[in-house]
Amino acid sequence: MNKCMPERRAEARFLCADLVRVEWCDRLGRTRRSSAVLEDISPSGACLQFEKSVPLDTVLHVRHSQGKLVGTVKYCLFRDIGYFVGVQFAQAQGWSRDAFIPEHLLDLEQLVTRSADKPGKRRLN
Predict the structure, then answer these.
(1) What CATH number does the domain located at 14-93 have?
(2) What CA–CA distance (Å, rounded) separates 51 from 30?
(3) pTM of this prediction?
(4) Measured CA angle at 16 (ends 39, 19), to 5 deg
(5) What pLDDT does residue 109 have?
(6) How far apart are CA 14 and CA 97, in angstroms?
(7) In the predicted model, is pLDDT for residue 101 greater than 80?
(8) Nearest-5° angle of CA 105, CA 109, CA 111?
(9) Whole-number Å distance between alpha carbons of 111 and 78
């Protein structure tokens, strides 16, 4: 996480890797379309990786295999390999596992819980 960007989510985020199609209107009213990689997701938002930047406050339509999510761009940062765009979903259009399960979904909270439940390994000296 970028030191300049404090964590603002109230609920857990799930890491994932899935290719999605994204549509939005630019400032001239033209429809733009692009592919993006869904990096993480939570009920209130997601992080998408784009090849180009997307302006703040742009309304995005994120199309996935089971439908679409609608949200607004809250940040856009360039990091090494592309632009990472934070999207806050419209309240009525939030994400749930019932509506869409991204490919390669990883629940970090569940992973940590399972790790803590396993007995420790004994080291041989």
Answers:
(1) 2.40.10.220
(2) 19
(3) 0.74
(4) 65
(5) 62
(6) 11
(7) no
(8) 70
(9) 29
